[in-house]
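Standup notes
- DV: blocked on the single-chain target, sequence here:
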Amino acid sequence: MIRRLLQTVAAVSLVFAGSAQATVITEQGDTGQSIATADILYGGTTGVNGWLANCCADLWGFGWSGGDLTIDTAGSSFDTQLFLFDANGMGLFANDDGLPGFRSRMDLLGLAAGNYFIGISGYDLDPVSAGGFIFPNTFTGVVGATGPGGAYALSDWQRRNSGRSNGSYRLNFSSATTAVPAPATLALLGLGLLGLGAARRR
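- DV (later): unblocked, structure below
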């Protein structure tokens, strides 16, 4: 079954620290590594516990209402890499070794509102498109999609060399901005506004 991102960004926005609905989810089965097969994170998600084999990457879709966003892999058991894609699978940013112990971290300042996918893989397993590798061969810190395949959408994952890295991982989402409403909060807000409108007509 194809899993697609919802079009209404606010309805699937992540909620961060301070929210009573903040949750950490555990991967069920195996999330896909393509845009069409990725699992979707809903409001309230602050972390994901998952597991990767040597062969594969995991891709998670989420909505963001705009502002600073940090994604990291602190707590993972292996050498991780992170890759951020837009709703169409175009590479935006990547990080390798942004944290001690060969873990990854992205500080995305002023990330625009929209739907995104975050990919996690072990060292040396990188995203490719019809034009080749999407990101540079060697990267530390946060870099853009400047590889030969950066002008095309994600189509697969390939090894550059013979690196192997796998195990349990933790994806952490955090933000210094005000927490965005979870779906239930949005629904209540909508009902409240409708009620105010009806009262005003009377």
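- Follow-up: Residues 21 and 44 are 5 Å apart (CA to CA).
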